[in-house]
Amino acid sequence: MANDAFLVHTCCAPCLCALLGQLKQRSGGFVAYFSNPNVHPLIEFRRRLKACHVLAGQQGFALVADEAYGLEPFLDAIGPQRARPARCRVCYAMRLDATARHAADHGFPIFTSTLLVSPQQNRDAICELGHQAAERVGVAFDDTDYRALHHLGVGRARSQQLYRQQYCGCIFSEAERYRDTTRHLYRPQRKSQAPNDK
Question: CATH no. for residue 72?
Fold first, then answer.
């Protein structure tokens, strides 16, 4: 890779859509890197990965994807830390560490993450863990605040008919997202009472 090439950890297609305008202006180019062992269940993982592949094909940029479904490694990593924010810190660290290692192994001097696009994510934790991961392997982490671009990314994904997820990623966030919904609950209908015989 060129000495100033940029590696972009990619959590999903909508967040990557938000950054494409800026990324395409970089003189050294960029490569998107999909590594998300936190995304469950399997069909959700495949939907998000497919959307990133589709976007890369449409826009003509390189995408490197770890296509291994990571349910068991994710559960092993979080252990008993299943409540936020501890769970989320482990999740961020897994993805940022993998991206930093890929950057170091493939000649990228700097990386960032589309996690910095979402206003729902913990920016301070992402920045802290991103810089720590970068320092361990001798690369740099770009912690630019991209949250102002979030709605732009969602709009672009919608216009390009890309899959847009409804929750953060892990099975615990999925449960939190749908906990208060009733759409898929079974509600038996009351049988109407037979009229009294007279």
Answer: 3.40.50.620
